TrEMBL record:
Residues 8-197 form the Phosphoribulokinase/uridine kinase domain. It catalyses: uridine + ATP = UMP + ADP + H(+); cytidine + ATP = CMP + ADP + H(+). This is Uridine kinase. The lineage of its organism: Bacteria, Pseudomonadati, Pseudomonadota, Gammaproteobacteria, Alteromonadales. Pfam families: PRK. Keywords: ATP-binding, Cytoplasm, Kinase, Nucleotide-binding, Transferase. The keyword Kinase applies. The keyword ATP-binding applies. NCBIfam families: PRK05480.1, udk. It comes from the Bacteria. It is an enzyme of class 2 (transferase). Pathway: Pyrimidine metabolism; UMP biosynthesis via salvage pathway; UMP from uridine: step 1/1; Pyrimidine metabolism; CTP biosynthesis via salvage pathway; CTP from cytidine: step 1/3. One of its GO terms (molecular function) is kinase activity. ATP binds at G13, A14, S15, A16, S17, G18, K19, T20. It comes from Thalassotalea insulae.
Amino acid sequence: MHTIKPTIIAITGASASGKTLFAQTIFDELLAELGAQGITIIKEDAYYRAQDHLPLHEREKTNYDHPNAFEHELLSEHLTKLLNNQSVEMPVYCYQTHTRTKQTSLIQPTPIILVEGILLFTNPILRNCFDIKVYMDTPLDICLVRRIQRDTAERGRSLESITAQYLETVRPMYYQFIEPEKAWADIVITKGGKNRMAIEVLKAKIRQLIQQHIS
Ligand SMILES: Nc1ncnc2c1ncn2[C@@H]1O[C@H](COP(=O)(O)OP(=O)(O)O)[C@@H](O)[C@H]1O
Ligand SMILES: O=c1ccn([C@@H]2O[C@H](COP(=O)(O)O)[C@@H](O)[C@H]2O)c(=O)[nH]1
């Protein structure tokens, strides 16, 4: 099964546009059919640069919505290894400490690799790795509401810190870098991470690709 080059499907879009929910739903629903040997997910967030050299109050000032915040070179190195059927140790990022933890997560090469993150199409080397490019086209006001709900519940953030960061970096970087990524997309998805028809279309395409791997 692993002799044919894996297919990499990349999903980008604004923060809280539904990338994780969309990718995770496809993964969860196909896992039973394909098994862990068939499909894997990589998050661009795991490749935020390590900031151990900075005190916490300095890390809080980082612009996490600029491409320079990511170690895209490491992500492209890892994708290249996976394409060559080698496993990789993916970093594990912590949103509370704004740096990588000491742990890593072993990612094995699989025929289908889902990659999701806000700035994946800004890097030409990364773009070149992707076989299918998906853009989540969720209105920014809906993203903001969902980010407030998610980040207060899951990422330990206050309303004040979310709104300040939104005005300082999230919104301006969206217009500068994320929205222009749509031009690179093969598929543009409306209605967020619960778009059932889009999920089914991607799942059908993945099943077709798997059939080609087997035959
Ligand atoms: N279509 C949708 N309807 C309702 N809630 C959604 C929808 N899409 C995403 N969400 C929720 O919005 C929040 C942000 O989605 P998430 O997938 O984490 O976004 P991203 O990965 O793009 O940052 C999550 O709590 C998710 O469950
Ligand atoms: O330490 C950090 C790292 C990132 N962020 C914010 O996260 C989002 C990207 O993640 P999504 O899952 O796509 O929302 C990005 O907008 C950063 O602002 C952070 O707040 N702190």
